[in-house]
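Action item from last week, closing it out:
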Amino acid sequence: MAGLDETTPIPTEITLHSLSKLLEIAFDDGSRFTLPFEFLRVYSPSAEVRGHGPGQETLQQGKRDVDIVDIHPVGNYAIKPVFSDGHDSGLYSWDYLYSIASHQEELWSAYLEALERNGGTRDPAKVPPPPARAKGGCGHQH
């Protein structure tokens, strides 16, 4: 996660609109963005979604109906949303939020193209179950 510096815009207002499934965020530079919960979920900065390096990303599927059920401040630099699918490990720093909000149109197009390329779906009912994992723990030798 990139560090905050004096050029990072800081939110002045963060509002959850649960019925419309939108997060509205205003920054101190005068910009204001409206981000769908689904967009925030599929672009979570967590390792579960982004992996630990380039090429390790996990394409998120079936997130069309996801809600944000809670949101926690993290210091003076981030928020940590809790999504209705149980995902709660993404720390959305102010610079990350500003970046994805500023590039929302391109990022959303890239996501839809990746779904199409991989035969993925936004609909939860159509997502195939994950592959079965071997029983007996995490798979590491102890």
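Closing note: Residues 11-124 form a domain with the NE0471 N-terminal domain-like fold (CATH 3.30.2020.30).
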